[in-house]
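Task card 7
Instruction: Convert sequence to structure tokens.
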Amino acid sequence: MILVTNHGGKSYALHNGKGILSQKNGMNLYRGCQHGCIYCDSRSVCYNMQHDFEDIEIKENAVELLEEALKRKRRRCMIGMGAMCDPYMPLEMTVQLTLKSLMAIEKYGFGVTLITKSDKILRDIDIIQRINQKSKAVIAMTLTTADEKLCRILEPNVCTTQGRYEVLKEFQRREIPTVVWLTPILPFINDTEENLRRILDMCFDAGVKGIICFSFGVTLREGDREYFYKKLDEHFPGMKEKYIRTFGNSYICNSPNNKKLMDIFVSQCKSHGVMYSPEKIFAYENEFDVSDGQTSIFDTTN
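Output:
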């Protein structure tokens, strides 16, 4: 890996990779992220990043590797982007690996699922719309809090929830399907019924296909936990000690309100005809083609 320049006070490095797609046809074009979310699991030591998380590692030959991988595929499928590091961090606007990858996906007739929390995705909405018209595109947007001031603390270097809601509405106008990741919900911080209902109202108004919520809580492990606690000390004095008393070193830290919030979540999704089962949502995202006139398992909402 060669350090080549400085971007926004942090460094980024280029290197040539040997592969691009995972066994499930997912890919991450960047390692590290500039969004600064205080809870990000991708900071965890288990991912073996050999650099500071804010320093971005770029797979320089990613587009060439993707083209070769797509050429070798016997059957077209959905290509996933952004499961670990956001494909629309500020650096993307200069490097354009996500845009170039979308161009390759369109060229070879594949579908795409994109996970982001950035309104920078609107730069590529035209090509995403073309992919959706030719095959299939699904946009997944992360929402955590309806409180704009709190959002600036939790996710400081990316657009707020209101901006993401407007993105969802734009994709709705383009008839491009969307999914929301309602996660994480931080115990004692944004784990309220009011917050849940406000986010759900945004989702329903934007016509999302599904909402993914495994539980109302956050996951913490080595690397992620230390950074999260540091930020709690900065913004929520005394909160770190409350987490330690409540959760110890647990990986899954569920809100005391988890059951109540989950009951509301499931009930509201059912009443609005929105998928809420993670398994069915993932299956929908990965399903490349449902023939016209056939009944799909996704015709029911659960």
